[in-house]
Amino acid sequence: MTTPSIQDSGDNDGGGNTARRLAVSGDLTMDHIAGIVGPLRAITPGGSALAIDLAGIGRIDTSGAWLIHRLVQDWTAAGVPATIENASGDADRLIAQVAANDNPVAIRAVHGNRAIERLDRIGRALYVAVENVGNFLAFLGQTLIVLGQTLIGRRPMRWNAFIHQCEAVGVNAIPIVGLLLFLVGMVVAQQGAVQLRAFGAEVFVVNLIGRSVMRELGILLTAIMVAGRSSSAFAAQIGSMKLNQEVDALHTIGMSPIEVLVVPRVIAMGLMLSMLGFFGSFMAILGGGLFCWISLDIPPVAFFQRLQEVTPLSDLVIGMIKAPIFGVVIAMMGCFQGMQVTGNAESVGERTTRAVVESIFVVIVLDAFFAVFFSALGFN
Amino acid sequence: MPGLGPTLDEDDAVIRVRGLVTGFGEQIIHDKLDLDVRKGEILGVVGGSGTGKSVLMRAIVGLQSTREGSIKVFGEETRDLDAAAAKDLRRRWGVMFQEGALFSSLSVAENIEVPMREFLDLPEPLMDELAGYKVTMVGLPVEAGPKFPSELSGGMKKRAGLARALSLDPLLLFLDEPTAGLDPISAAAFDELIKVLKETLGLTVFLITHDLDTLHAICDRVAVLADKKVLAVGTIPELLTFDHPWVREYFSGPRGRAAGAGKTKTMEPA
């Protein structure tokens, strides 16, 4: 194990020309050559000839052989004939091996004009965005056709898949949705109580809980929770099936992937989100009621009596109208992103992220739309 | 059956496995398995599906926990190594996985440079030159360097995986089914490549394969995995005399005979 070194000497042949002689010694292996790369390459080719003396080298590997090979190449290219002397059999063999594989290989992608590249990227992003919208419309159309055909009985309903999905997105989500909404109910009651206490109107906390939860928070928070939980799962499941060519296999067997994979998920999600939303609203009211009982001394009987008086039935109906729509949208976003997976596993991750972000975004936009819509209809 | 045992008498085995027991849950994969790999040889490992060829490789490189037994690589007991020694050991071997296992977010050249960046302190231009050399060495086209794994065909991924495994000039190379899924021409070229690399770089190669042509073309010795052990190790002519139903079926079945015949045919003109 010796660090390599170079000895540079010149033999004057009398005619003003100098034959250079580089004696390299030490181990020419990857671990050791870092120190001599710089000095070796810094020597400017000159003189009448170069002799590289390898008598002093210890071990050599392809990196060392490459270094010597390049040295010969560079000097020869500069018009100075270079030769290798006193190389061992191993060194000779390795140098011949690397020489045989010396090609101008591209290492990095070549960058063009930065401004043009930026424009190129913007153009591509725009193109992809438009294409994505087109793809989504196509997917939406296909799904609606198959969904309609399934509902009127012209296509078989995949009951097994449907029940399985109901369990996965609905039943299994009960604990987390219940806990989340219970806590949110308590927080709304607590924050409301703090503000309303200033007016001595703490009893209006019941109005606050009843109306906000039944109409907005119960369904919206459940939908966001389910979007995070299940649209990602849909995208990942269908995406990995696509990578694994399972979707292609369905096609070739003569089964429609939309019918087998998408429609059961969409129907299950629509149904389950309605039920989960109802359950979640109930849990939020329970949480708020518990806070009122413990902290504001409003007994449960009085709480529910007041809740009945101040919460119109329309709030529940509005909530129950929104829930299945949110469910269908979330399921479609998840399945759509799964169907868009191509290429490699990285694409699954990217599409899964997009499924979550976009489905939550769309749910909130739709919720805002519904708020305006129902207000305009006179349901305040 | 002298001469076909899995152990060697000499002491210079690069890999020495003794009494290896591995398994998953109730299922035992290897039961008291012994195997030696000689320095500078290409050892082919064959066996039916599910006999634990890949598990054996994973156990040797430390990806699979073992229940009993000793595995020595370069004379060091892999289980007892501390972190620094284990890292040093990993620097001296290269592993090529079946599908290449390239890092999908890095280009081919960057993949090849990963071990160099981790272990060495080389100037950037030299690293690029060496990566370029490895690209050519494994037979990838010159424009392959900046490409990402998703843009490569299966065979190119394998070659790029091999280039990464060879990045640090390892002394020992593990190959998991290098020719599976390649067309016969590419497979033959890959065989030739491994043989050339072994001869020029002095590699020791641990090669898992189902490819009878590969076995005939490049393997110095072949180890047969069956009945949870290494049943026999030897050259193919030696194994032909070995009396075990699976071994006989494997080498003397129609495919085995065809591969053997191909071998002798190509040998004649030479």
Characterise this structure.
The complex is a heterodimer of chains A (380) and B (270). Chain A is α/β, with parallel strands linked by helices. Chain A folds into two domains: 5-100, STAS domain (Transcription Regulator spoIIAA, 2-Layer Sandwich), CATH 3.30.750; 160-376, no CATH class. Chain A contains twelve helices and four strands, in the order E-E-H-E-H-E-H-H-H-H-H-H-H-H-H-H. In chain A, helix 5 runs parallel beside helix 9 (257-296). The longest helix of chain A has 40 residues, at 257-296. Chain B has 270 residues and is α/β, with parallel strands linked by helices. Chain B has one domain: Rossmann fold. Helix content of chain B is 40%, strand content 24%. Chain B is built from ten helices and ten strands. Chain B has helices at 53-60, 83-91, 108-119, 124-137, 154-165, 184-201, 212-218, 236-240, 245-252, 254-267; strands at residues 13-24, 27-38, 42-47, 68-73, 76-77, 93-96, 172-176, 204-208, 221-226, 229-234. In chain B, the strands form two sheets. In chain B, strands 6-7-8-3-9-10 form a six-stranded mixed β-sheet. In chain B, helix 9 (245-252) crosses helix 10 (254-267). Chain B is globular and about 55 Å long. The chains are: A alpha/beta (380), B alpha/beta (270). Chain A: It is a multi-pass membrane protein. Chain A: Residues 22-129 form the STAS domain. Chain A: Its main location: membrane. Chain A: It is found in: Cell inner membrane.
